[in-house]
Amino acid sequence: MSYDYDLFVIGGGSGGVATARRAAQYGAKVGLAEVDRLGGTCVNRGCIPKKLMVYASHFPDLTQDAKGYGWQMKQRPVEESGVQGLAQKLFPLKNNELEMTLDWSAMLRTINQELERLNGVYQRMLDNSKVDVLRDYAAFVDEHTLSVGDRKVTADKILIAVGGKPVKPDIPGIEYAITSDDIFHLPKQPKRIMILGGGYIGCEFACILQGLGTEVTQVIRGDLILKGFDGDLRSTIQEAMQQHGIRLLTDSLLTQIEKTDEGLIARIKGQENSEETVVMDAVSLAATGREPNLENLGLDKTGVEVRNGAIAVDENNRTAVENIYAVGDCIGRIELTPVAIKEGRFFADTIFGNTPKTMSYDNVPTAIFTTPEAATVGLTEAEAKEQYGDAVKIYRAKFRPTYFTLAGRDEKTLVKLVVETNTDRVVGAHMVGDNAAEIIQGLAIAVKMGAKKSDFDATVAIHPSVAEEFVTLR
Description:
Helix content: 25-40%
Largest sheet: 7 strands, mixed
Shape: globular
Number of helices: 12
Structural class: alpha/beta
Strand content: 15-25%
């Protein structure tokens, strides 16, 4: 049978675009449907705009740190006459120092300009790869046919790469809460905000908004944030967040949100059934998780199996239907952009490049862009002890980096190695501190290759640096 396309991709996120381009490079005729901006969550509502906001949130601290190094921030002298002179007389600055203020609208405007630029880059990449981009929703008609807007297309192979979406808990008044997607579109900066959830998204936005000057209260169900990460990493970040001024309500549940003239009132049930109210200015943030974005996809017209809310696939990303595949957040494995990209490229290599490749989910590094930053690869201490028992040795150091000695801030960095002693293999590496992601990315190669603690010990340190601690741990 003749089809319109060798491959049709549903979804123009990072995984979908990477797959489409790789398949096209092998000579496949490829179509792709995306109704929204290209790049998906990562480019438009996640990794990129979030990281830009992280940078923005650091400038107040950097300005204060500069004073410890001898920098002084004062107004330049102005003439007595003219508008500048008049403004200085009418609105003198305290101690004649410059005051930093954030223009929220300007920040979002410049971030959006960068996202528009990236969307143009994605479009050009697809055009150069000769991928047909259809700007509409796609839904299954049958296992080889899709309805895309007002037209129907057929394809030999179909790849589902629709990503995920944030979910809100079923709580009275939750309609007044926004999600992590919405924070980039707020018309003005919230003065008071409550973050619901202790996962990495909630923690990242708590740190971002606190750094930008918002009063932040964060509500979590347990006693520690970042469930699933290493215990030392979790406690170190939590201590730092509280030290920076984030009010953390642990072992607590949000039971209701009410809209009043005063603002939004959140009712919190804490330990031993204690109750507390938190007042916010007309905004809350629900960051309690994400789920595959399968709504209106027409999967009921196919034999594709959905298990626990995610598309079920085998080790080659094939669904229960022979010609339909899926990658990325919609399959519910590891919900990270680089994972979706690699899954998609391996699929294209296998199916269209005759180079079979299978995705490995072991030792996938990840970062948490809180303040301080954290990154990790491999097993946590608890996971290692569960797997290897007493044959686990922990090497760790917690210290104040050189940078903060003159800055005068009591900021701590954590470095940690988890070693399986029977083989001397490093099975986990964890860090909290500036540039953690950059450092752990390099260590991830060593962990993936099966490096031993003796290999770390034999490596000459770069001094003075934070990274050297990983090769000097004893």
